[in-house]
Every structure is written in structure tokens, then in C-alpha cells.
Write a structure and sequence with these properties.
Blueprint lengths: L6 E3 L2 E2 L2 E2 L8 E5 L2 E5 L4 E10 L2 E9 L8 H10 L5
Antiparallel strand pairs: 1-4, 2-3, 4-5, 5-6, 6-7
Length: about 80
């Protein structure tokens, strides 16, 4: 079980800096759960440590608010462009 209680704030996505004025996405890990802010909405899901330092994040549940750009673009890249295998 992934035993970290870490909270991270993203400063870039895909090696690109966040747009000016964008609220940074976050990820908080607590045992086998991950939750955070994706740029517009909050999300939660399961996380599994496959090997030391390598995790897999399962399907995510998220709120479904609409936000202006660039928040929706950030969220689309962070949360929805990385489907579970």
C-alpha cells in the first residue's frame, strides 16, 4: 500500500508552465487514495504502488463544474488525458 500523506501542487503540465493566473492543480496522497483539484473541479480515486516509486492511479470520480479557459484546458490535460490502462 502506498503509505504517503503528501500533497503536491503542480507548476507545469507536459513540460509547459501553467498559464498566467491559473489556479495550480493539486494531488494529495493518503494510503490507497488520491484526491485533489484538477484546475476547475475536485477529484478522488484509488492509487496503487506497482513498484518502489511507481504508482498507478485508477479511475477518478470528479465534480462536473464548467469553468472558463484556461482552467478547463488545464483540467482536461491533467485529469482526462491520462486514462487508466
Amino acid at each position: 500500500m502506498f503509505a504517503s500523506r503528501a500533497r503536491d501542487r503542480f507548476v507545469s503540465l507536459g513540460r509547459r508552465p501553467l498559464p498566467p493566473g491559473a489556479r495550480p492543480p493539486t494531488a494529495a496522497f493518503d494510503g490507497a487514495r488520491v484526491s485533489g483539484f484538477g484546475g476547475c473541479n475536485r477529484y478522488t480515486g484509488e492509487v496503487e504502488e506497482k513498484a518502489l516509486g511507481a504508482i498507478t492511479i485508477g479511475a477518478l470520480a470528479a465534480t462536473k463544474m464548467a469553468c472558463p479557459a484556461p482552467a478547463m484546458e488545464i483540467e482536461a490535460h491533467m485529469v482526462f488525458e491520462h486514462p487508466a490502462p
